[in-house]
Design brief:
18% strand; 305 residues; 46% helix; Sufe protein. Chain: A; Arc Repressor Mutant, subunit A; 3-stranded mixed sheet; 12 helices
Length: 305
């Protein structure tokens, strides 16, 4: 059982600012969202911002998230922190600020606060029309962790920004090394390289990296999906549920079962911690449905029973 603060538990059981923001169609107001993560990695977050254009100020913020207690609480906390701030003020917020607002996070869950920071940056950069959706340095480095797509430069950046000292901490923050484990030795080499540098060099490098905001890379268009018979469709839906969705839910005490398939209408039954959870609607709509639409058919509609 994770040792969560009272603030984390309160925002998990009673999340604030949950949901999307409708476009008000006002001349001085813009609505934008940033999206990070994936169900394959265990967490996904879509952060919505309502911005007053003339003041460059965040009027409202809401979230839709799929993930554990820390992911929901971190997302909820972030929306509270950034309301009323200018976009530049919001960009100065980092994952440590989110964790501090929550009264701390278990170190193994710090990646949830990182996800919030990156979703915020993605939304602001999209609003400002910046096409490059990753740290340039992150994209250019050698791919270190193939399981989670993390480059050597991103590992180095988070070591510097968060004063990480162990391979386990790197995994806790950005999941690198948390898959097959083949990159653990390479992560340790990067750690030793950073730690061997003079303190003045590390501080200067950390400041320079902090000033370069990360965003998301454009996703490649999905390959055309084959025409499926009804039996093939049901089999593939069950396969995706069993292999990609259920393990993530089970890891946090939840589960899901396929109840029925009627054409493109997929009925599922949430179980365990997911049954009655405050974010169960988002789990169905934003995580289960999104994954099935991507992996099986984009026309699928998922409902809980």
């Amino acid at each position: 059982m994770w040792d969560y603060s009272e603030k984390v538990l309160d925002l998990f059981y009673n999340p604030v600012n949950q949901g999307a923001i409708e476009d008000p169609n006002e001349s001085d107001v813009a609505v934008v969202y940033g999206e990070v993560g994936s169900i394959a990695c265990g967490d996904a977050l879509r952060l919505h911002l309502k911005v007053q254009v003339s003041a460059d100020q965040i009027l409202d913020a809401r979230f839709q998230t799929f993930g554990c207690t820390s992911a929901i609480a971190s997302s909820s906390a972030l929306t509270e922190i950034i309301k009323g701030k200018t976009l530049d003020e919001a960009l100065a917020i980092d994952n440590q600020d989110i964790a501090a607002y929550l009264g701390g996070l278990p170190e193994a869950k710090m990646h949830c606060s990182v996800m919030g920071q990156e979703a915020l940056e993605a939304a602001i950069y999209k609003y400002r029309g910046i096409e490059v959706e990753h740290h340039e340095d992150d994209d250019e480095g050698t791919l270190l962790c193939k399981c989670f797509g993390v480059t050597e430069n991103k590992v180095r950046r988070f070591i510097l920004e968060n004063n990480l000292e162990t391979v386990e901490q790197v995994t806790n923050y950005i999941k690198a090394g948390g898959g097959c484990g083949s990159c653990l030795a390479d992560i340790e080499d990067v750690l030793l390289e950073v730690q061997a540098a003079p303190e003045s060099t590390r501080v200067a490098a950390g400041v320079a990296l902090k000033e370069t905001a990360p965003t998301l890379s454009d996703a490649e268009p999905p390959a055309p999906l084959p025409v499926l018979t009804n039996l093939q469709k049901i089999a593939l839906i069950q396969q995706v549920l069993d292999e990609e969705i259920r393990p993530v839910l089970i890891a946090d005490g939840g589960d899901v079962a396929l109840h029925d398939v009627d054409g493109d209408r997929v009925l599922v039954r949430l179980k365990g911690a997911c049954d009655g959870c405050a974010s169960s609607a988002d789990t169905v709509r934003y995580a289960i449905a999104a994954q099935l639409q991507e992996r099986v058919l984009p026309t699928l509609r998922v409902e809980s029973v």
